[in-house]
Amino acid sequence: MNKKIGIIIYARTSSKRFPNKIFKKIIGLKMIEIILKRAKKINLKKYNYEIIVNTSVNKSDDKIVKFCKKNKIKYFRGNLTNVFKRTYGCLKKNNYKFFTRINCDRPLLDFEMISRMINLILKRKNIDIVSNCTGAYPKGLACEVARSRIFFDNFNLIKTKNNKEHIFNFFYKNEKRFKILKISDKLYQRHSNINLSVDKKKDLKKIIKIFEFFKKNYLIATRIVLKNIKNIKLE
Fold first, then answer.
1. Where does 5-231 sit in CATH, by number?
2. Please, which of 55, 133, 141, 177 could form a disulfide with 61 given CB 3.0 to 4.6 Å?
3. What is the pLDDT averaged over residues 115-135?
4. Which has the closest alpha carbon to 20: 30, 34, 9?
5. Which of 102, 104, 114, 139 is nearest to 33 (CA)?
6. pLDDT tops 60 at residue 1
7. What is the C-alpha separation between 47 and 39, in angstroms, rounded?
8. 42-68, pLDDT tens digit by residue?
């Protein structure tokens, strides 16, 4: 398949609640390193794709660029607060026909689910977005896969601060205008009260406990984590 797919990892250091969290160590690795390694597990071997870190032009994010250069990771820089515009620029410059959004505070990103979602949008020509944001899912596992075209076609309609910061809000709010395939998952639904995102320092400690339970296997499948979560002492 010639259509290029972008696995876009959104990273910044200026989190108000937990600054520089993406560089905090979990099991001997920085969180951004674990996320990149898990992203490489997304199964797209027969497709034309690449992983790219999407960060801002702000000086605070120079260390992200330094990290990417040192580790030979592709990166793109754009506006800090207008994430939609930054995404638009990244898609245009790299000629991505499809992309998936991965936030860099999600060290348990579900690479199996993301693989499934990407394959769905590639096989169904009438779908604009595949989303697992159905209202019942663990925090930290939300994901969308989209056709870049809808970002190009609607760029001039993105006016509000909320839509600029949360890049899929516009499409959800105008759902009737777009073809959105929402995936429901029973395992996700049963564990929708769990937070697997790192927003605060206490969340980082929880993730460390999870990986330690699995003998520091940072590539453990997310579904296995959810199936065993009740056996892990998180508090």
1. 3.90.550.10
2. 55
3. 93
4. 30
5. 104
6. no
7. 15
8. 998 889 999 999 999 999 999 999 999
DSSP letters, the chain, are --S-EEEEEE--S--SSSTTGGGSBSSSSBHHHHHHHHHTTS--TTS-EEEEEEEESSGGGHHHHHHHHHTT--EEEE-SS-HHHHHHHHHHHHT-SEEEEEETT-TT--HHHHHHHHHHHHH-TT-SEEE--SS-S-BT---EEEEHHHHHHTGGG--SHHHHHSTTHHHHHTGGGS-EEE---HHHHHTTT-B-S-SSHHHHHHHHHHHHHTTT-TT--HHHHHHHGGGS---
Residue with tokens 């076609």: 153
pLDDT tens per residue across span 143-156: 999 999 999 999 99
Domain boundaries, the chain: 5-231
